[in-house]
Write a structure and sequence with these properties.
Distance between the termini: 13 Å
Strand order of the largest sheet: 2-1-3-4
Largest sheet: 4 strands, mixed
Number of strands: 4
Strand content: 15-25%
Low-confidence stretches: none
Shape: elongated
Order of helices and strands: EHHEHEEH
């Protein structure tokens, strides 16, 4: 089973821009994993600060298996996770 590591920045700037909502969405996805037939282990890592959000206006910042997403939304993060699991099934 593939492992997907989702790092979510939880600095104050990213939290104000919605990083906690992204974490909630990923938790919901983990609960629906079997119904959605996602064949991957999803690990959420809250990071104090990933980095780019300090210098630029790009919050919230999320990394999925090393791929950085700036100005992330729950929808974009979820679709990236689902796409990674779909690649593993084919």
């Amino acid at each position: 089973m593939k492992k997907i590591i989702v790092e979510v920045c939880s600095c104050s700037k990213c939290v104000m821009m919605g990083s906690m909502d992204i974490i909630s969405s990923i938790e919901s996805l983990k609960k629906l994993k079997s119904q959605l037939r996602l064949h991957a282990q999803i690990e959420i890592v809250e990071c104090k600060c990933i980095g780019p959000c300090r210098d630029r206006d790009c919050s919230p910042v999320v990394r999925i298996n090393g791929k950085e997403l700036t100005n992330a939304t729950s929808e974009v993060v979820m679709s990236n996770i689902i796409a990674l699991t779909a690649k593993d099934v084919k």
